[in-house]
Amino acid sequence: MHSSTLYAALALLPAVLAAPALEKRCTGPGVNQATLSLIESFEGYSATPYSDPSGYPTIGYGHLCSTSSCSEIPYAIPLSDADGQRLLQSDLAVAQNCITNDTGSCVVLNANQYGALVSWAFNVGCGNAASSSLISRLNTCSENTNTVISQELPKWNKSNGQVLAGLTRRRAAEVSLAQTATSAGALPACG
Ligand SMILES: *[C@@H]1O[C@H](CO)[C@@H](O)[C@H](O)[C@H]1NC(C)=O
Ligand SMILES: *[C@@H]1O[C@H](CO)[C@@H](O)[C@H](O)[C@H]1NC(C)=O
């Protein structure tokens, strides 16, 4: 090794050691069509604001609003179909990034397993996903991925402390998507 290269490598070492093990700065890949269809069918679509089963104001494909009129979204209401798709894509990007960032580089997910987890994170929120036993079990990289998914996902059947039949069905659909074999890979997305 050329000595200047060695010095450059040593200079980088402290920065590498200081980085938290799971912190990745990498954009989550997009989900496949099967995932998009699952999310769209469970969220349903509304061009105008409505209250979700737990009473939260919602618009488009399950976009949670911060005001009851959803006036904070950057699109005209009633939403056009094209703006509804844009809102879904921006919400999906958040869920894709959080599943990608929260999983260690030893976690290997195919496109259907990844899509199932993105659907779940989209639904339960990135904070809940990040602190879940599902993610921490995946990050041990010592268990079968579909075993972890099929044991952990169904636990997420409650909203505001109440079991909702729609959530039980959605979790079952996500488990079934994850268990559908595919050769298309999703994670790891970067080194
Ligand atoms: C994950 O990483 C992406 C890409 O750097 C970043 O834009 C995003 O904010 C991160 N998301 C989370 C939840 O940390
Ligand atoms: C909801 O999840 C809990 C925790 O996993 C489980 O014990 C319960 O049977 C589930 N309820 C339904 C109706 O599936």
UniProtKB/TrEMBL annotation:
PANTHER family with a match to the protein in the record: LYSOZYME RRRD-RELATED (PTHR38107:SF3), PTHR38107
Pfam families in the cross-refs: Phage_lysozyme
Region forming the signal peptide: 1-18
Keywords carried by this UniProt record: Antimicrobial, Bacteriolytic enzyme, Glycosidase, Host cytoplasm, Hydrolase, Signal
Signal among keywords: yes
Coiled-coil portions: none
GO BP annotations, alphabetical order: cell wall macromolecule catabolic process; defense response to bacterium; killing of cells of another organism; peptidoglycan catabolic process
HAMAP family according to UniProt: ENDOLYSIN_T4
InterPro entries, per the entry: Bacteriophage_GH24, Endolysin_autolysin, Endolysin_T4_type, Glyco_hydro_24, Lysozyme-like_dom_sf, Lysozyme_dom_sf
Catalytic activity reported: Hydrolysis of (1->4)-beta-linkages between N-acetylmuramic acid and N-acetyl-D-glucosamine residues in a peptidoglycan and between N-acetyl-D-glucosamine residues in chitodextrins
Top-level lineage group: Eukaryota
Name of the protein in question: Glycoside hydrolase family 24 protein
GO MF assignments: lysozyme activity
Organism: Aulographum hederae CBS 113979
